[in-house]
Amino acid sequence: MKVLVVHRNEAVLESIKAQLSQWYIRSCMSGLDGLLCCRGEHFDLILCGLDLPVVTGIEMVRSIRNFSVNKKTPVILLAEGKETADHVRLLNLMNANLLTLEEVTEMQNLNLE
Q1: Contact residues for 25 (Cβ-Cβ < 8 A; gap 6+)
Q2: Neighbours of 52 (CB within 10 A)
Q3: Residue 77: CB atoms within 10 Å
């Protein structure tokens, strides 16, 4: 599986790369770099932060949906729990999912055995 991870915090990038080490991970620290990666390379999944430098996560998803080879690639935005109902509505319109840190913690605590 080929995954693009875009986040402004290098520690978060490294943590995600470690957790998904069995997959090919390409990482970027700005929305612009992530957008440029999406224009020429196909990914199976895109994970990105909402608050990115240069181009925000929402702007990046909007551009991906309109002008890239990843128009139908699943996108998950990593949020901090401060998102408004308008953020959620907008992301639903762009066919992207929002995952808060609380939801990530809940998923880590699930026993799926």
Answers
A1: 3, 4, 5, 16, 17
A2: 24
A3: 26
- 85-93 vs 57-67: helix axis angle to the nearest 10? 10
**Residue 9: helix, strand or coil by DSSP?**
coil
Q: What confidence category does residue 113 fall into, taking pLDDT thresholds of 50, 70 and 90? A: very low
Residues 13 and 21: beta-carbon distance below 8 Å: no
Q: What is the pLDDT of residue 25?
A: 94
Per-residue tokens: 61: 């998803």
Contact present, 97 and 87 (Cβ < 8 Å): no
Residues 45-104: pLDDT tens digits? 999 998 899 999 989 999 999 988 999 999 999 877 677 788 778 888 888 888 876 666
Q: Which residue has the tokens 């490294």?
A: 14
pTM of the model: 0.84
